[in-house]
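Sequence, please.
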């Protein structure tokens, strides 16, 4: 059997010697978590890389979502997209708020701003859009609506590390933005994440909340959680950050090869780069129109799987179909026709910086008929 071709990527770390040096320093310092030296260095390095004012590191990409809502005291209803990883909506649920699903744009998979206003009620307090696959949302339109109705905007930018729109990271937009540094992301710390905010007082509040709400030895300001990134993972982040641009460029080259080979395949569509956008090529979704392609999406998916080419159907099933959410009025498929179609047609092809030409060929031999 051929080796598996996975969808995304494993940690970068080209040189374990580098990690050993960091580990030695951590062991010597005898300070292994709770805001150590490498934690501080990584926050500073990421703020510079992303050009964002303040960033707080977390143990994963889910807890900053939950903490963002808590930090801003979001209540009532939160407008969001069903076309994402389930963590996005779970964060709303964990804050005791009601998710309200709005359909997405077929051009990007991101929330459709033209449909947001109709979903706003007197209980709406926030919008949580997702630049899915790193494709930027229509941030200007979203902000205009948020300003008109006095709503907060929290971007779940888990996929958008390294993306820039006219030179600006989507993480710098809205009131807050979150990132995931999970092993499968363009930039990873094995598990990890971050929360971006825009002023020092908010950063302080976030840092308390991610440390149980402790502000000093005898004071707890709120029921916070433990989501501090440790020194080992901070060190891995510092190392991986050096190579992230190289990795993004390698992914870009894979995307070029996929696009060249797939552009004339009947029934297969994919997205091109958007003008003014620096993409991160975090995923390579293709959409299968079964009538034109002559095969259902799942037939192709399982045919690939049988050959050990492990594409993923991100994001199928839609979040709105899961048992916790499916009874919400906004979860009905009639309300979400674009997202429903995309979820039924999508396969994300293997996409990471270590894919070789022969690997790409193996994928293409299965998709191109
Ligand atoms: N918001 C959004 C929009 C997100 O997409 C995510 C996470 C979050 C929030 C929450 O962030 P975190 O709390 O996770 O930091 C994966 C990831 O676990 C998850 O981080 C990611 N999004 C989601 C889209 O994908 P699974 O259940 O599909 O993972 P799994 O184990 O099936 O692995 C996927 C592929 O990656 C496989 O082909 C194998 C490969 N892989 C996996 C691991 C664990 C590796 O190559 N190396 C590895 O170490 O959720």
């Amino acid at each position: 059997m051929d080796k598996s071709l996975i969808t995304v990527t494993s940690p970068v770390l080209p040189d374990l010697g580098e990690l050993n040096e960091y580990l030695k320093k951590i062991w010597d310092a005898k300070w292994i978590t709770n805001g150590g030296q490498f934690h501080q260095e990584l926050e500073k390095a990421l703020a510079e890389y992303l050009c964002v004012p303040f960033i707080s590191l977390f143990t994963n990409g889910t807890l900053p979502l939950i903490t963002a809502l808590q930090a801003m005291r979001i209540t009532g209803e939160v407008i969001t997209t069903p076309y994402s990883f389930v963590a996005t909506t779970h964060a709303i649920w964990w804050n005791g708020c009601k998710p309200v699903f709005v359909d997405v744009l077929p051009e990007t998979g991101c929330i459709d701003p033209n449909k947001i206003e109709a979903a706003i009620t007197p209980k709406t307090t926030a919008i949580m859009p997702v630049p899915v696959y790193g494709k930027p949302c229509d941030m200007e339109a979203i902000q205009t609506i948020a300003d008109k109705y006095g709503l907060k905007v929290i971007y779940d930018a888990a996929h958008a590390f390294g993306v820039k729109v006219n030179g600006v990271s989507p993480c710098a937009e809205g009131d807050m933005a979150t990132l995931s540094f999970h092993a499968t992301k363009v930039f990873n710390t094995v598990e990890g994440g971050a929360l971006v905010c825009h002023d020092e007082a908010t950063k302080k509040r976030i840092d308390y909340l991610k440390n149980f709400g402790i502000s000093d030895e005898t004071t707890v300001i709120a029921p916070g959680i433990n989501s501090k990134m440790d020194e080992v993972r901070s060190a891995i982040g510092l190392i991986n950050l050096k190579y992230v641009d190289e990795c993004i460029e390698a992914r870009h080259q894979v995307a070029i090869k996929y696009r060249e080979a797939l552009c004339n395949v009947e029934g297969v569509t994919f997205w091109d780069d958007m003008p003014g956008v620096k993409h991160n090529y975090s995923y390579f979704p293709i959409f299968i129109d079964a009538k034109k392609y002559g095969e259902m999406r799942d037939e192709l998916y399982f045919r690939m799987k049988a050959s050990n080419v492990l594409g993923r159907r991100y994001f199928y099933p839609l979040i709105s179909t899961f048992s916790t959410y499916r009874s919400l009025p906004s979860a009905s498929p009639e309300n979400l026709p674009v997202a429903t179609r995309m979820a039924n047609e999508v396969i994300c092809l293997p996409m990471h910086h270590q894919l070789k030409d022969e690997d790409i060929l193996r994928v293409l031999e299965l998709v191109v008929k």
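The chain has two domains: 16-102+109-241, 244-367.
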